[in-house]
Amino acid sequence: MYYLLLFCFYLFVSLCFFFFFKQKTAYEMLRSLVGSEMCIRDRSTQSTGTPHRAMVKARQFVVSPIDEKMRQVSARVVVDIAKPGVSLLHPESEKKIQFFPFTHIQSWLSSKQAFGLQVLDAKQEVQTLWFRTKESENIISALKGCVDEILADRKKSATSKRIAEGIIGGYLDKGAGERSNQLRQIVAEATSDDDVETQRTAIWKLSLLTGVSDVCKEEIITAGHLEATLVLVRSQDPKLQCHLAGMIANCAQLDQLRLPICELGAVRPLITLAQSGVSE
Predict the structure, then answer these.
(1) Is there a contact between 123 and 107 (Cβ–Cβ < 8 Å)?
(2) CA–CA separation, 204 and 247 (whole Å)
(3) Range with the poorest average pLDDT among 48-52, 70-74, 214-218, 272-276
(4) How many CB atoms lie within 10 A of CB 141?
(5) Contact residues for 114 (Cβ-Cβ < 8 A; gap 6+)
(6) Dist. CA 104–CA 91, nearest whole Å
(7) How many angstroms separate the CA atoms of 181 and 196, rounded?
């Protein structure tokens, strides 16, 4: 009887020990399998290249949304960080799922396994979107870099605005003869110098002045300045081409100048430029 009771007690302790550690091991295995399954999916999608095709581009990261509504759209999304804001794209079709301009992004959060983006929704309420990823630090670094670029662009734009106001004000304060001399000097800089930066700056000045002065528009045509600068249409610099197109468009605002512009052959280069798909 004593041995029977001892055997039952031993059996009971063994079963408790077995089930306790068995459940714990199963739980740990489940966590490991989930992590392994995600790693396997990551490797398989990277090998095929289809969902991760966009990661070739800078500032794009493939993540897994935690939000159930977004997961119904796609289990994986591409976080595309660009100057206007942050876009969430479908990894295969690259179709835009959501877009958040930087003016609507309040802050970002991170951990080793997740990344959070706090944004303003349509009701101007703060919403936090969480994504599973191991690239939180890289994503935040990309966000900070993009914000720095935006601030630098704004500073550069403000500087350009001050320079433009100075050029326009200086031109308008001059007399007729001095204005004509200034235009001839600017056209000479645009056509006689082979430096692209000098040419671009000169044509930019002409586009500014023709935008504010009808007298300047007329003199550009009657003094032969448009014909002289049309050779720059062949330039490979997209900004120079766009400044030149802006100058011609400004001159064409006056009805009496449209026919002379057509006779000088300035329309066809503009059509060619429009069809070339120049981004700037």
Answers:
(1) no
(2) 8
(3) 48-52
(4) 13
(5) 66, 130, 131, 132, 133, 136
(6) 23
(7) 22
Q: How far apart are CA 205 and CA 182, in angstroms?
A: 10
Q: What is the pLDDT of residues 110-160, one digit of tens each?
A: 888 898 989 988 788 898 899 999 888 899 889 888 888 888 888 888 998
pLDDT of the residue at 28 = 35
**Model confidence pLDDT, tens digit, residues 155-186:** 888 998 999 999 999 999 999 999 999 999 99
Residue 134 burial (CB < 10 Å; 0-12/13-18/19+)? middle
> Parallel, antiparallel, or unpaired for β 105-110 and 60-65?
unpaired
pTM of the entire predicted model: 0.55
How is residue 50 annotated by DSSP?
S
- Coil, strand, or helix at residue 6? helix
DSSP character string of 83-129: SSEEEEE-TTT--EEEEEEGGGEEEEEE-SSEEEEEEE-TTS-EEEE
Cα–Cα dist 245/273, whole Å: 9
Q: CB–CB of 230/262 below 8 Å? A: no
